[in-house]
Amino acid sequence: MASILTVTGVSKTYASGHQALKSINLSIARGEILALLGPNGAGKTTLISIICGLVRPSSGTVVVDGHDIVRDYRASRALIGLVPQELTTDAFESVWNAVSFSRGLFGYRADPAHIEKTLRALSLWDKKDARIMTLSGGMKRRLLIAKALSHEPRILFLDEPTAGVDVELRRDMWQLVRELRDTGVTVILTTHYIEEAEEMADRIGVMRKGELLLVERKAELMRKLGRKQLTLQLQQALAQVPAALAGFAPALSADGLELTYTYGTRGQGPGMVAFMHQVDAAGIAYRDLHTTQSSLEDIFVSLVHEERA
């Protein structure tokens, strides 16, 4: 699938000397949903700000549907809608006027039908004449999305879009995201809700300390980095791991009644079948067994907390 956004060698170092991004390379396909995960300070918002033309990169290039964000700023920016984390907007303006004004900022002619469609999709139609200051926090979040969609962008950035909103609003937002994707809009979101990334995203990127550690499809990420565990509940306690099982490096519980073997999902090295054959050969009796598999959250936590030598 053709790329609509290409980031090449993008780095950002601020005047203070802090390096927020370190040579980011990323290609995003037209019409996909990409979730960027990472702890606070990982560089997610800086990367989004650079792509949207709000921050100048120290080095590297960003091309949006053939337009360089520096040399052809207006054309590239017109293709992008941004929903920021902060709920900043004109408190005294009406919802209708705020969304209409956002469309005009990009040089688009007035289109009441599009504004109405957007407000209805976000359950804001009955608030169209209300002043923004009277809206709840959740309604203001919806308004930010409406403003970002006012000029019919082809790429939509959602920076922590469901932070601090209720379950019903979160469900409505994700339904809207699906509908946008179905119309060909590319969606890039940052989120702390890993279950949302797991449910919604076509691909998942993980950032840490200004670096993009990986970008993979969820199934491929689980295949490459997932781990499975086989736990045997033994009939008799073991004082130590038998020498015949040492090559598998299983963990023995403190009471000696559980033996846990951890293995990868890629098929490399000895697997569960080989381990069980060796257990039987060693004459180890067990009364029960169960298996577990690492979740996307487990993989994310292991990546962002891993300390490099």
Account of the 3D structure:
The protein is of the alpha/beta class and 309 residues long. The protein has two domains: 3-222, 3-Layer(aba) Sandwich (Rossmann fold), CATH 3.40.50.300; 227-293, Alpha-Beta Plaits (2-Layer Sandwich), CATH 3.30.70. The protein is 32% helix and 28% strand. It has helices spanning 44-51, 73-78, 95-105, 112-121, 137-149, 167-182, 194-200, 218-225, 272-281, 296-304, and strands at 3-13, 19-29, 33-37, 59-64, 67-68, 80-83, 155-159, 186-190, 203-208, 211-217, 227-234, 251-252, 258-264, 286-293. It has a six-stranded mixed sheet with strand order 6-7-8-3-9-10, sandwiched between helices. A four-stranded antiparallel sheet has the order 2-1-4-5. A four-stranded antiparallel sheet has the order 12-13-11-14. A hairpin with a 2-residue loop joins strand 9 (203-208) and strand 10 (211-217). The model has no long low-confidence stretch (mean pLDDT 85).
Number of strands: 14
Kindly name the structural category: alpha/beta
Helical residue percent band: 25-40%
Number of domains: 2
| H/E element sequence | EEEHEEHEHHHEHEHEEHEEEHEH
Output the CATH homologous superfamily of the largest domain. Answer: P-loop containing nucleotide triphosphate hydrolases
Distance between the termini: 37 Å
Shape: elongated
User: What is the mean predicted local confidence, pLDDT?
Assistant: 85
CATH architecture of the largest domain: 3-Layer(aba) Sandwich
Low-confidence stretches: none
Strand content: 25-35%
**Number of helical stretches of at least 4 residues:** 10
C-alpha-based Rg, rounded: 25 Å
Placed side by side, the strands forming the largest sheet appear as 6-7-8-3-9-10
Q: Largest sheet at a glance?
A: 6 strands, mixed
Determine the CATH topology of the largest domain. Answer: Rossmann fold
Give the class-level CATH name of the largest domain. Alpha Beta
